[in-house]
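Illustration: Metallophosphoesterase.
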Amino acid sequence: MKFREEGTFTIAQLTDVHYADSRPEDELSLALIESVLREERPDLAVFTGDLIRKGPDARAQFARVTSLAAEAGIPYAFIFGNHDSRRDVTREELMAIEEAKPYCLAQAGPERISGVGNYSLPVYASRGGETAAAVLYLFDSECNAPPWARSGSGGKGEWIDRDKVEWYVRESAAYAGAYGGPLPALAFIHIPLPEYEEVWRTGVCYGSRHAKSRCPELNVGLFAAMTEMGDVMGTFAGHDHSSDYWGELGGIRLCYGRVTGFNGDLAGDMQRGARLIRLHEGKRGFDTWVRQADGSVVTNPPEHAPEH
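Result:
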């Protein structure tokens, strides 16, 4: 996984597919993923959780979604969402099946860290062999709310545990030590951080929010750790189907993906789609846009002024 000769690396974020089992909505979801991968030809596809929902065979459903990237000849990574392992399959089982596939870059991650699928992926320089030029961090936000946080939470009770924050700090420090300073980095999560709510209220944002953010009530300090380490330029979340905005806080762009699946709920006039992210070798920052189900591309989303 490396930058192209022209110095770009493009990622397609596909989120909340909610594939069930060949319903008409499922066929629309699969067709949308195929279209995005065909038209954009990204270097990597990242599924940011909730790939599946209720259906007869969770293993087959999960495999059907990820197979679209492999069939297109595109490497893929994923993180789990709150719907992926609530039925007759565990995260461990799904990860073991996927890790054996040739186009899969997802990893179970360290056993001593809570959850399954906490890992980093270096993006190597276009020239220079095994020299990393950027890094991607992927986190499992789990289904870990204690009883006092579950009632009526709508997903607000899920969070990144403290041990994952400490793991990220170690990973970031190791990359910085190996390369003489922080590498440009992106982070992918399913459940948005509490700062997503803060940036909508206090900063200038770009995009839409048709429903309240379902961020966790408990803040364990992942965002603070990212600002301290100085490598993460942007975070990319799913979970909130009716939001696709991004805003900058503390030098980090907090971005939602565009909901991809037709099975999930969606408020407002938003289309299903996918967020694209383009890194540029040797530079901090990234470009991002949304490709919609009708084939149109959104490069200039509406601006939202701070509420406070």
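Reading the tokens back as a structure: The first strand starts at residue 8 and ends at 14.
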